[in-house]
Amino acid sequence: MDKADVVKMAIEGRSVPYVPWHCGFTVEAAQKLREHFQEDDLEMVLDNHFIKLGSDIGFFDDLGNDRFQDAFGVVWDRSVDKDIGIVEEYQLAEPTLAGYEFPDPLDRRFFEHIPEELARYEGSLRVFKIGFSLYERAWTLRGMENLMMDFLTNPQFVRRLLNSIADYNIAQLHEALKYDIDAVYFGDDWGQQSGLQMGPDLWRHFIRPELERMYKVARDADKYVIIHSCGKVDELFDDLIEIGLNCFNPFQPEVMDTFALMKQYKGRLAFHGGLSTQQTLPYGSVEDVKQATTKLLEAGKEGGYIFAPAHAVEGDVPLENMLAFIEVLHGQEGYPGR
Predict the structure, then answer these.
(1) Any domain includes 337
(2) pTM here?
(3) 71: in domain
(4) What backbone torsions phi and psi does residue 92 show, to the nearest 5 degrees?
(5) CA-CA distance, 41 to 232, in Å (whole number)?
(6) Quick check: 338 pLDDT over 90?
């Protein structure tokens, strides 16, 4: 049994020999770990259970002065956020796609390293990532305030925009399915701390139909569908299951009852995440981190759960707290690397 087998058992809600994991880190946090372990390849050090293929946020040209331009033409300011940045220049000043050309979804850079990555991380769950997969791509092109108004005042434009973004992703997905992958991971933040940014009615009217089209391509190919959406979005779980979702990330404990939801959706939806990156990791003690990690692992023994911090670990998290949850993961009974 390899790591991919254990993850598949967890996603399908079956009992696992140990709780699998996949943990992500921001640039600053990852550098702390590289310096500590004296190793550049953190996937090997952590023994992460996914290998993530493609590029979740796409490719950027360095414009200088901490400005980067993505393939869609959007300019991002990375003077503070070094990983993605803050949108500085939108592309769609008016509610129309007239004159705008989407980039090539089959850009060779998404696929050229897949064979060597699959060989290097043999035995991991093979996950093709599509970031900014719908709503996020729409607002980065149009501007969030403009898009929110468009939902009400320019609905035909919103439908065309979201449909075009989904078409782009589906074209890329069809190419990715030519490779030996296990799952497709869609990133698209809909939530805030208190609920959906656009509310459930608009989400169901505009966003759900395009998600269903994208998820169907993956499910028809017998691949798992994993999504990432920050914030409180648990009111959508039943909708998402209906359209083909298998696993939800990042499962933030500050905004939803993680343990109650694991029980409620056992056998219907798996969860990936759960360790607080807003409180426990940056502000808790080493013992706090170990206790929280252990509690999550205990809850996940019967399946339906993949451990991770509830977001990429930020640079303000002390090194000893990162090492604490890694130690607990690697110390699990039943883990072959123990």
Answers:
(1) no
(2) 0.96
(3) yes
(4) -110, 85
(5) 33
(6) no
